[in-house]
């Protein structure tokens, strides 16, 4: 039997890795809903503006997916706007698919479910490890709005659903706001080129505390598993690699990959957005010197997002017990999450 996956946000880090995973598994036809063309030849791109209901409806005319994977979001200036715009993205897609026999809808959110939105980020954190049954925080959060849109459509249409809450996503992607691997790869490359110390840019708490991340490939595996496993129906899940580490342990290993030394931690945050504010000309020269693809620094690296992840002043890691009990036993080594992503970024001439 062939499933038809509609991936909303098919060119992002989560969506593109999901497309690659499903194609490798076989038995999947894939349509991708996005502004830009998917670089994966087997993905049928349906171009639209996800925030425009008419645009989404036109792109989805005649499309009858069995499974919908929502991996897209759009950052706005305030959380009130985040709720309006990102709730509308989910609603626009599911409204356009009314009555078309969708079997399952999977929604990707994240650990901000437990930490709060950017405006209130990590001000009051629940006890670690984060568990899916913890109550929602009292403040606005666009993840909650997106969940509620899925729940309402499921009650109306009768499909099953799953919610997936990854931590920091690690994997291959270019031009994605959430890609720490590319950001750190660029930072390390600039340090190597200029002799600038490779300093951990985050907080003392993150340097010392236990934490975890989510490989985009294990997220893809998790999405496919939940969408096709009855025991996972109508459930929210954390999804992380399965190991726990400290940045003071991992940082020298990232440095070693690039053939540089990890600097001593200076004792306070050194935000990359500030440190790299004038680095664009240096990056452009590095691109030319090494014959890399001509991507602007702002397209390859998302310094602001990595600063937010590494600048937290609270411990952050997730429990995977709910997935394990339901039968998902996959594991990913975190060091290899980074080095595999670096390998691919090098192979595609994104970083030197």
TrEMBL record:
Protein name according to UniProt: Nucleoside-diphosphate-sugar epimerase
Every PRISE-like Rossmann-fold domain range: 66-352
Any Pfam family: PRISE
Highest taxon listed in the record's lineage: Bacteria
Annotated transmembrane regions: none
């Amino acid at each position: 039997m062939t499933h038809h996956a509609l991936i909303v946000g098919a060119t992002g880090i989560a969506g593109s890795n999901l497309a690659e995973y499903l194609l490798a598994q076989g038995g999947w036809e894939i349509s991708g809903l996005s502004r830009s063309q998917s670089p994966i030849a087997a993905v049928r791109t349906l171009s639209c503006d996800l925030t425009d209901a008419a645009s989404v409806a036109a792109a989805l005319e005649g499309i009858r997916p069995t499974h919908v994977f929502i991996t897209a979001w759009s950052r706005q200036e305030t959380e009130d706007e985040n709720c309006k715009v990102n709730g509308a993205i989910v609603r626009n897609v599911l409204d356009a698919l009314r009555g078309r026999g969708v079997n399952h809808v999977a929604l990707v959110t994240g650990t901000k479910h437990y930490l709060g939105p950017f405006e209130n980020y990590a001000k009051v954190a629940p006890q670690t490890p984060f568990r899916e049954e913890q109550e929602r925080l009292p403040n606005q959060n666009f993840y909650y709005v997106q969940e509620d849109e899925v729940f309402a459509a499921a009650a109306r249409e009768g499909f099953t659903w799953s919610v997936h809450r990854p931590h920091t996503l690690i994997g291959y992607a270019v031009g994605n706001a959430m890609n720490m691997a590319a950001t750190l790869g660029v930072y390390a490359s600039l340090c190597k080129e200029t002799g600038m110390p490779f300093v951990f840019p985050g907080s003392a708490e993150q340097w010392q505390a236990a934490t975890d991340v989510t490989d985009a490939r294990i997220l893809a595996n998790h999405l496919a598993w939940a969408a096709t496993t009855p025991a996972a129906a109508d459930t929210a899940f954390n999804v992380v690699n399965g190991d726990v580490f400290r940045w003071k342990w991992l940082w020298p290993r990232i440095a070693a990959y690039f053939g540089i030394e990890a600097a001593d931690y200076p004792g306070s945050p050194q935000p990359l957005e500030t440190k790299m504010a004038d680095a664009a000309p240096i990056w452009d020269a590095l691109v030319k010197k090494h014959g890399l693809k001509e991507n602007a620094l702002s397209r390859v690296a998302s310094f602001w997002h990595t600063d937010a992840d590494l600048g937290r002043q609270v411990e952050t890691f997730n429990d995977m017990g709910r997935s394990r009990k339901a039968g998902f036993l996959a594991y990913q080594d975190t060091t290899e999450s980074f080095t595999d992503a670096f390998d691919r970024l090098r192979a595609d001439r994104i970083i030197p």
